[in-house]
Amino acid sequence: MIERLQLARWRAFDAITLDFGPGTTFLVAPNGVGKTSLLLGMTWALFGEHSKVDAVSCVRLGADSAETTVTLRLQDDTTLVIHRQVTTAGKTTQTIKHVDREVNAEQASALLIEEFGAPLDVAARLAVIRGAGREEGELDLREHLYDTFGVTELRRAAATAAQLAKEAVNARKKVRSASKAQVGNRDQLAAAAEQLGRDLEALGERRALLTQAAAAAEQAQRSLQAWRRYEEATQLQADQISELLSRVAGDGFTATTLPELASAIDERVEQTNESLAAARVELMQAQAQAFAAESALALLDSHDPACPTCARPFHGEELARSLDAQRVSARQAHTKAEQAGAAIRGGEVALQELQSLVGEVARLAVPVQEPDVVVPIDNPDAQRASAEQSLREHDELAGSVSRERAVITEQLDADADARAAHAAERTAYRREALTQAAAAALDGTARRVASEHIEPLSRQVRWRWKALFGEDGLQLRPDGKIVRVVNDRELRWEHLSSGEQIWARLVASLLILQSSTTIPFAWLDEPLEHLDPRARRIVARDLAISTRSEAPAQLIVTTYEHTLARQLAEDVPEVSIRFLNRTPYSQTGARESA
Q: N or C, where is the chain less crowded by C-beta within 10 Å?
């Protein structure tokens, strides 16, 4: 929810800071003090370009730039601080921090979309309810949902494409008759070329929107591919671990997990080192024994040998026996040295293999890094294919229009009437087919969005509406119309009081907010205006207690009704009040007091 809003050099305010909490907050100020300035500032601070706010026009007169800062408390209890600046020249900059760490615009958008459960342009339309009391005409829930979720624009585009198809049919008929008559009308051709030029400009603007949609779908597809690679790498690692545990089982390791295997390897490394140390000691002892025996043999083989121990001369067979004994000792020592050397070499090889196994275990123990992108909810492959198909169809249409214009221009330049009429007829047929296909595609998309998204949401809103108002009182019919039921009699919209109409609009907006998003707040601009005193009290009290359901948990209401707001703040624990007044000693500031 919104914790703090700060504006600097923004419309009515030179500088202002407002802190908000949960519940309903009434921002009370006389007309002209700056309630609308606060609303525009908060909307632009939070949603940026998605807010549709002309920030340049909001720079305070006499200043070079304006700044906005909004602090949000997210559902995971972390904070997101968005600071934006705009100059009179139209240059905008932004700094966004999440948990005191700076993030880029893409990361911030992902955080907000996850927080709000809706695209930012939709969230901006739902969370900010402007001038609910000043709207005219009957409220049609389905049409309201169409406007909110962009279906109206699709239907309008489909109608435009259908009109273009009709014009293409007429143009083709005219071209065909001209072809039959073999007569060229230069004035008509010039007018057609001019119209096609305007068509190309309009198609160029639409292509930019289609390109953005294709880029977004491509990004979602890349995110999905990253998660697929992550899942494949995780599975590969699991397979490698399983293969390693199976392989080392033949070497006497009975571990079932990597930590168990690492512990068993460490134990065997320690045993191998102990065996190597013992073998090296045995080798040194054998080498010392061999050296002693060979030294004794060298002394006994001298010209005048004597006992190596007591140095007395040998008698009889003593020399021969001593020589035999030393030779046996030397052979035994060499045998022990060879055995000890073999043991050392075998131990070193075993130790190298164990160290290699340790490295393999360490490599497999490192977890696969998760992608730093959000898992796409919908099917990005289908979205990208659809977006690219729409782009191709658009380019084909644009190419057809461009070729048609080129043909007409060539006709004008060459003044070959009959030949030009024949070529124009073929182009007209293509344009007719393409515009009809575009109209059908756009209309089909609008119908699909309405069927898959709008109708389920409309049913959910009707269910919540019935739970709120019951069988009597205000009712929302399946066709989206709002009526009032009194003793089984239906009163249509025009027979409702102004208070009932305004409250119906507010309830519908809040129910759509609750049903289609997880946005924790809503800002209502002057919902009490144009109400009679009794209706004003009823609507204000309902708004005061509406946050008890915690959906949304925070309402911010701008109003000039200070007496009513003060009374509600005293009676309802969830209500807080902020008074906005121009200070008598400042020409550029506004202050906030509670």
A: C
Q: So where are the chain's domains? A: 2-135+499-593, 154-232+384-444, 240-365
- Phi, psi for 29 (deg, rounded to 5): -160, 150
- Mean pLDDT across 281-310: 78
- Cβ partners under 8 Å of residue 557, min gap 6: 24, 25, 26, 27, 523, 524, 527, 528, 540, 543
Q: What is the pLDDT of residues 206-216, one digit of tens each?
A: 878 878 877 88
Q: pLDDT-derived band of residue 421, with 50, 70 and 90 as boundaries?
A: low
pLDDT digits (tens, 9 = 90+) for 489-508: 777 777 777 667 777 777 77
The two domains 2-135+499-593 and 240-365 share their CATH topology (first three levels equal): no
Per-state percent for the chain, helix, strand, coil, to nearest 5:
65, 15, 20
Please name the residue that has the structure tokens 């969230």.
Answer: 123
Q: How far apart are CA 574 and CA 22, in angstroms?
A: 8
- Crossing angle of helices 533-545 and 562-571, in 10° steps, is 40
Tell me the CATH number for domain 240-365: 1.10.287
The tens digit of pLDDT for each residue in 545-568 reads 878 776 788 889 888 888 888 888
Buried b (16+ CB within 10 A) or exposed e, 269-304: beebeebbeebeebbeebbebbeebeebbeebeeee
- Residue 450: pLDDT band (50, 70, 90) is low
Q: Tally Cβ neighbours within 10 Å of residue 555.
A: 23
* Four-CA torsion 426, 432, 437, 442, nearest 10 degrees: 140
What gap in Å lies between CA 353 and CA 280, rounded to an integer?
A: 20
1-39: string of b/e by CB count within 10 Å (b at 16+)?
bbbebbbbbbbbbbbbebebebbbbbbbbeeebbbbbbb
Decide the pairing of beta strands 521-525 and 128-130. parallel
**Domain 2-135+499-593 in CATH: superfamily?**
P-loop containing nucleotide triphosphate hydrolases (3.40.50.300)
Instruction: For residue 167, give the 3-state DSSP assignment.
Output: helix
Greatest mean pLDDT among 90-99, 117-126, 302-311, 422-431: 90-99
Tokens 């739970």 appear where?
A: 467
* Count helices and strands in the chain by DSSP H and E runs: 14, 15
Token pair of 275 as six digits = 């065996």
- Tokens 């709002």 locate to 482
Least confident among 283-287, 306-310, 543-547, 587-591: 587-591
**Helices (DSSP H) in 182-317: which residue ranges?**
186-249, 258-300
Q: Once rounded to an integer, what is the mean pLDDT over residues 15-23?
A: 93
Cα(552)–Cα(381) distance, integer angstroms: 34
Print burial letters for 188-200: b (CB count within 10 Å at least 16), e (below 16). Answer: ebeebbeebeebe
